[in-house]
Amino acid sequence: MKRFKFIYLLLLVLIVTACSQNEMLKYENEPAVYFDGAGYSKVDSINHSFFLLNSDILKDTILVRVNTMGELSSQARPVAIVQTNAGDSAAAVAGVHYVPFDDASLKPLLQVPAGKEYVDIPVVFIRDESLDSLKVRLELALVTNEYFRPGIVEKQRFVLTTTDLIEKPGAWDSRWYFAFGRSWGPVKMRFIIDITGYTDWNTVPTDMTMLTYFGALAKQRLLEYNAAHPDNPLREANGNLVTFNS
Amino acid sequence: MKVKNIFITSGLLTVLFLASCVTDYGNYEYRDAEAVLPVSISGIKDTSIMKGEYLVLEPEVTIKENQENYTYSWYVMPVNYAGALPEKTVWGNTKKLNQQVTLAVGNYYLNFAVRDSVRDIYVRKEVILNIKATEVGAGWFVLKDIDNETDFDYIKNDGTLYPDVLLTLADPAGSRLKGNAVKIEYQPTRYYHQLIDENGKVTQTLSNQSVYHILSDEDIKVFNSKELNLFKNQQDVFYTPTVCRPQNIGYSFSANLFLINDGKISAIYGMMTNIGKLTIKTGFYTFHPDMMVHRSGNAMGFDMDNHTFYHVDAYSDMVTFRTGAIPTTNMDATLINLLSASGVSQYGATTRGLAVMKSLDKDEYYLATLNYNNSNAYPIAVSESDPTRVAFDTIPAGSKFPNASVKAAPFTGNFAYFADGNKLSVYRNAPGLDAKESLMKEFPAGETISYMTNLYKANSFNYLAILTNSSNGWKMYAFNVLGLGNPEFETTPAFTYQGTGNARFLMYRE
């Protein structure tokens, strides 16, 4: 009997304490920022090349989108961004290869505008003559300031490279190969640029038949070139024949 | 103790019993709809109207009681609304509809509803409303030229003729092509076109359009088939400007498009999103103007430089055919004509046709029977009379057939029609015949046969359709062919039409 009384008491306690109204969680606004990625397929890096541009272009701007987390603000909010690989070998040098982020010309641009949820950070590359023989790397990270903290862990860093050497487009192996074949080389790249006139190799046209057209155009011009140079078909520096079939 | 347990158990079971039954609010009394809402609607049916006209409809409505409680409404909703919610457009709230139709061309559900405003229940009648911008649709298209300009006359299936469509009905009016007529081709779907504003910015990409491709010997135009508005001029159909010397165009039902222009063949691979621009197939070649387009996707053509037949894949590079008894690469003969069998909606594994060829080093002509199966499989058919060899037959010396100005392959059968002037003849390819050529019909003096086609549709018709030109203009004859596989046809045409200008090509569109 005592046992049953104990069980009843225990059940009573359980019933009384089992259910309680949950406090609703309230959103604690702690704004944060993270890199969005760039281009058609979200990537965390951009390969830039002055090679693809006219030789009179001495500075070129790449926009890197940074998104916010948290509520919008009615005021502009600066974003803190730093280079993390300064001093490493092949690292880009502020003021030599790119305009530093604390430059007066850039400061107004490094802030999320009022009422907006993103900002396109300008990374201004400088066409220093060292890039003729070098490819430099600029590793960026978002850091805490009074307005933002770093957000999504996987999206806190972004890498850019620049060079004046000929550069394989980042989307070559994923998209451009469809038009030009998987093989790549500087001579082939220069040939394609001259034939098509296309320069924005980080952006692949969404019109798939334009890719088909580019590929057909390049193939035809190569056939014509090789027919005109039967003893000297187009080759890379290493002797490999340029081809669009593989 | 046992009694106590029984009481406790009974108590719990009673609680369960009382909690398990709930009131059933279901309605088991069904009544006839007419008894609930005694309204009937009649007097309206599926209808077509031209855009911009007024649609006037007054249905018969019978309301058995309390007529003062009822209201009316008319509304339309599109039949096709892929990927979005259908939009409802209310047209009025009176019994009689008198509405100017300004909706886009297409099919709609037109609804007339009678509502009991007290009980808020209604009955409605739904019909199909077809809005069209032009009468040009299913029927015959006679492509012609007048004074070095290309236009077409359209003949509806009921026999109504609409002359000079590009001059009078197209948008903009006066959209004739310069040059002499070559071909018209209808693409019923999967055509893409970008709308571009005055600043050159793309504002919209139209997909799944149906169009007419029209070629003259120096111009190309593409028209939206529903509203006959101009989509593209010649400079718009290629990615980069090119010499404009169109020679042939063909559409396959798998949505691929092929164009032969200035000896080069171009294609659009229809299964890929595109903007309606063609890409030239690479290589060093000069294609003969004739080609065979397989309804399931690809094309077959002949390179006059290397005397080689090619399988032209819309998606990838063109290739030669696999080897067979008679080589189809670097042949000892050149092509005079490549004639396709023209069934209407001809589906099937092979596209039949004939190749009329001439030896490169002898005064000798050949007729090859082709079975093109949409791949690079060997295309020359096996001979019907001797299965041990392929059908690559020598045409007897002195035959008129090889050099006749107009030829046509039958839908099926071992023969070909040919014509010179006003005389229509047949060349029978069967072996052992003493006379392979015979005159079938002589048209009135002054008429010159300019085009022929054998159009066959199972269970519908088998026509030999012929265009002639004279100083009075063009004339079209449609003869019933007497059975499949035979060239004979009824001597009296099933129907004829005529118009002005020089007719060069005839198309039938379903």
Molecular structure report:
The complex is a heterodimer of chains A (246) and B (510). Chain A starts with a helix and ends in an 18-residue tail after the last helix. Chain A has helices spanning 2-18, 172-180, 186-196, 208-228, and strands at residues 32-35, 45-47, 59-69, 77-78, 80-83, 111-112, 118-126, 135-143, 149-150, 157-163. In chain A, 24% of the residues lie in helices and 22% in strands. By secondary structure, chain A is of the alpha+beta class. In chain A, helix 2 packs across helix 4 (208-228) and helix 3 crosses helix 4. In chain A, 23% of the residues are buried. Chain B starts with a helix and ends with a strand. Chain B has 510 residues and is mainly beta. In chain B, the strands form ten sheets. A five-stranded mixed β-sheet of chain B has the order 2-9-8-5-6, with no helix packed on it. In chain B, strands 10, 11, 12, 13 and 39 form a five-stranded antiparallel β-sheet that branches. Chain B is elongated. The longest helix of chain B has 19 residues, at 2-20. Chain B has two domains: 33-132, Sandwich (Immunoglobulin-like); 139-509, Methylamine Dehydrogenase, Chain H. The mean pLDDT of chain B is 91. Chain B is built from three helices and 39 strands. The A-B interface holds A 206-210, 212-213, 216-217, 219-220, 223, 227 and B 239-240, 268-269, 272-275, 277, 279-284, 317.
Question: What distinguishing features does this structure have?
Answer:
heterodimer, A: 246 residues, alpha+beta, Immunoglobulin-like, 2 domains, four-stranded mixed β-sheet, 10 strands, B: 510 residues, mainly beta, Methylamine Dehydrogenase, Chain H, five-stranded mixed β-sheet, five-stranded antiparallel β-sheet, 3 helices
CATH superfamily placement of the largest domain in chain B: YVTN repeat-like/Quinoprotein amine dehydrogenase
Distance between the termini of chain A: 88 Å
Q: State the CATH architecture of the largest domain in chain B.
A: 7 Propeller
First-residue to last-residue Cα separation of chain B = 91 Å
Number of helices of chain A: 4
